């Protein structure tokens, strides 16, 4: 299993504004009030890491307008480093998500027309001192368009050259890609540049071509280059594959308010545990517990648990079967 030499992360991908219909349970079309939060999977992962006690910087672009400034202020509030968050003008806009806090039939409507984070360039990556970090964490959506794709691949190669870990959250969002075939080829290419690959069964199936071949692909990626693959299966738990072993874990039962934010929270709990030298099984379970906590809370970024909250949860919840 790849180790993380320090608890400091550079996270590459989108930041945006989430508007949650309020109060919880309200449907979007019936709402008169919305609560605004920081959103976007990369920003959420950065918050999850920071809430667990890691240092986290975000590499992205936001629009040079009030919504972009909202995101910058939120990053500041959460203690996320903004040195590599650039501003983009013109018609590019920061992503917007309009979401419900509903466990069943939850609507999540995403606006990414001319998304500002896709304007990230190789020049944005060139000045970064990657050796300062324990790992570079990328989200697969950053690969969906050519400019940001080239920047993401350049960041991965620079991280490898600096000798730090590379981590991929496959994060497949069909609406961001020109085609499923292009997503499959590009994500697989990026996965082969990563030490740790995290995704659900459908995301590994995207790269494999068929749902029944996803786990076999995860195993083959591990065998190729001593990687670690976390193959998540929803309510059926996860299989974590390394060159030495396979670890099967369940999920923590919780009273979910919504389905969103679980994957981002998992990544925070999982990676910080690895950076602190915890065994792989324990790291996966901490990620799973963090995911269970977030879906039982309102919002995504503000729902991310602290290290103390996660410890308290684990102390009162037995390891899942």
Keywords:
single chain, 321 residues, alpha/beta, UDP-N-acetylmuramoyl-L-alanine:D-glutamate ligase, 4-stranded mixed β-sheet, 37% helix
List the helices and strands and how they pair.
Blueprint: E1 8-12, E2 16-22, E3 33-39, H1 41-51, E4 55-63, H2 66-78, E5 81-88, E6 95-99, E7 108-111, H3 122-126, E8 135-139, H4 146-162, E9 165-169, H5 180-191, E10 196-200, H6 201-208, H7 214-225, E11 228-232, E12 238-241, E13 246-249, H8 262-275, H9 280-295, H10 307-316
Parallel strand pairs: 1-4, 1-8, 2-6, 4-5, 8-9, 9-10, 10-11
Antiparallel strand pairs: 2-3, 6-7, 11-12, 12-13
Helix pairs in contact: 1-8, 6-7, 8-9
Give the termini distance in whole angstroms: 23 Å
Structural class: alpha/beta
Q: What is the strand content?
A: 15-25%
**From the coordinates shown, what is the CATH architecture?**
3-Layer(aba) Sandwich
* Domain module tally: 1
The tally of strands reads: 13
Helix content range: 25-40%
In the CATH hierarchy, what is the superfamily? Ribokinase
Give the overall average pLDDT. 96
Order of helices and strands: EEEHEHEEEHEHEHEHHEEEHHH
Strand order of the largest sheet: 5-4-1-8-9-10-11-12-13
CATH domain fold name: UDP-N-acetylmuramoyl-L-alanine:D-glutamate ligase
Radius of gyration computed on alpha carbons: 18 Å
């Amino acid at each position: 299993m790849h180790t993380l030499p320090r608890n400091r992360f550079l996270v590459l991908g989108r930041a945006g504004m989430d508007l949650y219909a309020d109060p919880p349970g309200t449907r979007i079309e019936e709402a008169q009030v919305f609560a605004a939060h920081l959103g976007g999977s990369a920003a959420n992962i950065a918050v999850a890491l920071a809430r667990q006690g890691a240092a986290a910087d975000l590499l992205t672009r936001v629009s040079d307008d009030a919504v972009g400034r909202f995101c910058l202020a939120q990053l500041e509030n959460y203690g996320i480093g903004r040195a590599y968050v650039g501003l983009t003008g013109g018609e590019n806009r920061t992503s917007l998500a309009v979401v419900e806090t509903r466990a069943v039939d939850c609507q999540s409507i995403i606006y990414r027309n001319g998304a500002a984070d896709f304007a990230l360039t190789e020049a944005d990556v060139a000045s970064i001192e990657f050796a300062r970090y324990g790992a570079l964490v990328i989200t697969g959506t950053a690969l969906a368009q050519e400019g940001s794709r080239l920047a993401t691949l350049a960041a991965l190669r620079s991280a490898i050259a600096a000798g730090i870990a590379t981590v991929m959250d496959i994060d497949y969002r069909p609406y961001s890609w020109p085609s499923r075939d292009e997503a499959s080829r590009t994500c697989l290419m990026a996965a082969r540049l990563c030490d740790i690959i995290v995704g659900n069964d459908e995301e590994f199936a995207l790269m494999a071509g068929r749902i029944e071949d996803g786990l076999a692909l995860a195993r083959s990626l591990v065998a190729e280059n001593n990687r670690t693959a976390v193959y998540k299966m929803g309510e059926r738990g996860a299989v974590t594959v390394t060159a030495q072993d396979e670890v099967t874990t369940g999920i923590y039962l919780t009273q979910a308010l919504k389905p969103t934010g679980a994957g981002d929270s998992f990544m925070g709990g999982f990676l910080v545990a690895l950076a602190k030298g915890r065994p792989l099984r324990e790291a996966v379970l901490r990620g799973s517990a963090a995911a269970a906590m977030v879906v039982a809370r309102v919002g995504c970024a503000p729902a991310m648990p602290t290290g103390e909250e996660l410890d308290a949860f684990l102390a009162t919840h037995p390891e899942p079967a």
